[in-house]
Amino acid sequence: MKLEFWGVRGTMPISGKDRVKYGGNTICSAVYANDEYPIIIDAGTGIKRLGDEIVRKKGDKPLNLSILLTHFHLDHIQGFPFFAPLYLPDAILTIYSPQSPKETERYLSGLMSGRYFPVDFWGTPSMKIYLQIQGDFSLKGVRIGMCPLHHPQGSVAYKLATEEKSIVFATDTEHPATGVDEKLAAFAEGADDFIYDATYTLKEYESGKIGWGHSTWLEGTKLANEAKVKHLYLSHFNPDHSDRNLDEIVTKAQEKFPKTSGAKESS
């Protein structure tokens, strides 16, 4: 499997000359496995560039795309109205989420309703299929599992696995007051790539952010060690953190777990 990051920020997109190295788009990732089109995880603003790239490459062929949504906070779905395949009559979008099909459709259509958007969701010509994830399943030859996370209104981690590789996405979660999230550690055990929520520094977290549903780079390294993963990617970066701030965070994390990287947008 090939992993690509198309958005690595949490909360809101950001730009600036000091936010170039890691990127400024909100959460969106793509995993290429046994198909020319990726399995897409989340639909933050990064899905805009990904959608443009998919359409550019598709030529006259129809599209059949799968999107896994972890939850419906705005930073994880705000790019969906700008996703080019949404407007193609030969595109089929299968959207998976922990919610019922009716709820998923309601949340996504709400982004384009009333005075929020000039194009009505119901007028977009792509075919949309909504599926609720209630257990493990297979998609394009990839085994997919999910694990509940500690986050306001709920969120889930996803594991994508083949015989050769496994990738775990846990981008919105808060660690317990002591120890590690044992359920998440067991879920991520032995993963080749572990993507984890590094929204806050320790100082930020302890000064008013406890209970907000996010974590720190240090807790990511603790989980990576506990789960014996091969590679830790810190992600869901705070828009207030510059490239220099993130370089410092990654360096500190590498002291605790050497195989740590900061997730960076695909160029």
The biggest sheet amounts to: 7 strands, mixed
CATH-defined superfamily: Ribonuclease Z/Hydroxyacylglutathione hydrolase-like
Helix fraction? 10-25%
The secondary-structure class comes to: alpha/beta
- So, CATH architecture? 4-Layer Sandwich
- The rounded distance between the terminal residues' Cα atoms is 19 Å
What is the CATH domain class?
Alpha Beta
Helix and strand run:
EEEHEEHEEEEEHEHHEHE
Oligomer kind: single chain
Q: Strand tally, please?
A: 13
| CATH domain topology | Metallo-beta-lactamase, Chain A
Spans of at least 5 consecutive residues whose pLDDT stays below 50 are none
State the domain count.
Answer: 1
List the total number of helices: 6
Give the overall shape, derived from the CA principal axes: globular
How does this model look, in words?
By secondary structure, this protein is an alpha/beta fold. It has a single domain, classed as Metallo-beta-lactamase, Chain A. 24% of the residues lie in helices and 26% in strands. The protein is built from 6 helices and 13 strands. The chain has helices at residues 46-58, 101-110, 182-188, 202-209, 217-227, 243-256, and strands at 2-7, 28-32, 39-41, 63-68, 91-97, 127-132, 137-139, 142-149, 155-161, 166-170, 193-197, 231-235, 260-262. The strands form 2 sheets. The protein has a 7-stranded mixed β-sheet with strand order 7-8-9-10-11-12-13. The chain has a 6-stranded mixed β-sheet with strand order 1-2-3-4-5-6, covered by helices on one side. Strand 8 and strand 9 form a beta hairpin. Helix 3 crosses helix 5 (217-227) and helix 5 (217-227) packs parallel to helix 6 (243-256). The longest helix has 14 residues, at 243-256. The protein is globular, with a radius of gyration of 18 Å. The mean pLDDT is 97.
